[in-house]
């Protein structure tokens, strides 16, 4: 028999209007909003704040307007009746974080109004998994992609204004203007440079944002404006990691150089803004960087030669070059193997994050024990100072590779469960062949909740592949 604290589960799918009516009926009958569950066992406030449900059946404009009004009224009712705006759903998402995603899917005026209501009810912007400002600016869930039509060249200026209103509201509520996303790729300034938006960068700088910020991979705003995809390539998840030119990166590059960013700086992979721009096909941005390098006496003849055959070849050839013909050797700033060792730390953090998947519990416990054995440093064939580790939480999958980007010709050793049946663990070696990642060898080990493969046996299988394909000690 249901008690006063047991969940009240509403059957779905319901039409949008029926779902709203059912939620309202229960709340007005005295059911506390946090007891009401819909969808994937989501609390009513979180479920209602997900605006995608307003569009799922392709409604016409008049229907959307009516749904938006009903939506906002229901959010206010739930909050007034005691719904907790900080209750997290799966993967750490809160009503505030899902509302921050609305700025690319819904009318921004409505999104900012809903955000204000949540903040007024006590929603804490420091409790979201990702920086809510980064999310408002267009950071997506799909492993590092950013997109926000409010900053397109042909966008209505009012849309950008609503985004700025949202950021100011979040800052007033305690959000940090320097907070990075949980993958440590972006701050709001780095997103502003990626989007190619001078107005956004000026707006952030006026509010105290550090325009010289550098992420843990060594990338700064000028590199993102140039076309830095290093972070995206290191953050795979079955999506395209192609960099897409947005906004006005030439104007952004000029502004950042004016603000004092070093045009000769290199990230941890040795990429400079000039290299990144040319690799991304942004020859006009590269020419701006070349001009700045010449002004600092750092433009090399080798740099100028890279413009050969482009429309800006003559313009760059007229710039003054330094006496050196090549770049000096890179200074080793980190101890050998530090980057590889750090990747194991990040993988462990991803696996043990409070928002990480914990189902099924038996496999998660086994997986953590297996990881700690592989990461112990006691296995000659799995040296943590020579191999990079990457953990994909949604797939409970560990990747080991010789290169930072495991999608490469040197290949990857993968430890992966069957996340549908949970009846097997697969250890495989795959290698990039053209545009395809091709499996060269696979070992399948049966498993069940009662009996998992021996950890030492899995370690031997992994070590055998790293020895054969990566030439690690046997």
Compact summary:
With 474 residues, the chain is an alpha+beta fold. Among the domains are: 84 residues, no CATH class; 133 residues. It contains 19 helices and 8 strands.
Describe this protein's structure.
Keywords: ANK repeat, Repeat. ANK repeats lie at residues 184-216. This is Ankyrin repeat protein. This protein is α+β, with helices and mostly antiparallel strands and 474 residues long. Among the domains are: 1-84, no CATH class; 338-470. It has helices at residues 16-28, 44-49, 61-80, 95-100, 108-120, 132-136, 157-172, 188-195, 198-206, 221-226, 230-233, 249-258, 273-279, 283-295, 301-305, 313-317, 338-352, 361-374, 455-470, and strands spanning 8-9, 36-38, 42-43, 388-392, 397-401, 412-417, 424-433, 436-446. Strand 2 and strand 3 form a beta hairpin. Helix 1 packs parallel to helix 3 and helix 3 runs parallel beside helix 5 (108-120). Residues 233-242 have low confidence and may be disordered.
């Amino acid at each position: 028999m249901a008690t006063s604290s047991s969940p009240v589960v509403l059957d779905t799918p319901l039409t949008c209007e029926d779902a709203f009516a059912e939620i309202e009926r229960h709340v007005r009958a005295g059911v506390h909003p946090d007891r009401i569950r819909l969808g994937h066992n989501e609390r009513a406030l979180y479920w209602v704040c997900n605006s995608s449900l307003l569009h799922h059946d392709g409604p016409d404009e008049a229907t959307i307007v009516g749904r938006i009004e009903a939506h906002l009224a229901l959010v206010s009712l739930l909050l007034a009746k005691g719904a907790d705006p900080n209750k997290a759903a799966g993967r750490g998402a809160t009503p505030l974080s899902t509302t921050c995603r609305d700025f690319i899917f819904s009318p921004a005026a409505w999104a900012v109004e809903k955000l204000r209501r949540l903040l007024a009810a006590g929603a804490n912007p420091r409790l979201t998994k990702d920086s809510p400002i980064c999310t408002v600016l267009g950071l997506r869930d799909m492993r590092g992609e950013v997109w926000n039509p409010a900053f397109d060249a042909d966008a209505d200026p009012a849309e950008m204004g609503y985004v700025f209103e949202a950021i100011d509201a979040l800052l007033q509520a305690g959000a940090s203007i320097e907070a990075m996303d949980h993958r440590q790729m972006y701050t709001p300034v780095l997103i502003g440079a990626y989007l190619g938006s001078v107005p956004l960068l000026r707006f952030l700088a006026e509010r105290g944002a550090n325009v010289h910020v550098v992420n843990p991979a060594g990338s700064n705003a000028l590199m993102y404006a140039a076309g830095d995809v290093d972070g995206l390539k290191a953050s795979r998840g079955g999506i395209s990691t192609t960099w897409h030119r947005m906004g006005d990166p030439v104007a952004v590059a000029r502004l950042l150089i004016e603000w004092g960013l070093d045009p000769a700086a290199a990230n941890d992979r040795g990429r400079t803004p000039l290299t990144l721009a040319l690799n991304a096909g942004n020859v006009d941005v590269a020419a701006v960087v070349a001009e700045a390098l010449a002004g600092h006496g750092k433009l090399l003849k080798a740099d100028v030669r890279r413009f050969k055959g482009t429309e800006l070849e003559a313009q760059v050839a007229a710039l003054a070059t330094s006496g050196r013909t090549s770049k000096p050797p890179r200074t080793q700033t980190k101890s050998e193997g530090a980057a590889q060792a750090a990747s194991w730390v990040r993988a462990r953090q991803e696996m043990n994050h409070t928002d990480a998947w914990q189902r099924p519990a038996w496999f998660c416990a086994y997986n953590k024990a297996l990881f700690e054995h592989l990461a112990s440093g006691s296995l000659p064939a799995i040296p943590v100072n020579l191999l990079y580790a990457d953990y994909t939480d949604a797939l409970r999958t560990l990747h080991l590779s010789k290169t930072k980007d495991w999608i490469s010709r040197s290949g990857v050793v993968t430890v992966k469960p069957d996340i549908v049946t949970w009846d097997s663990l697969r250890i495989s070696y795959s290698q990039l062949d053209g545009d395809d990642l091709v499996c060269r060898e696979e070992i399948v080990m049966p498993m069940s909740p009662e009996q998992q493969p021996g950890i030492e046996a899995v370690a031997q299988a992994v070590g055998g592949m790293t020895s054969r394909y990566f030439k690690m000690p046997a």
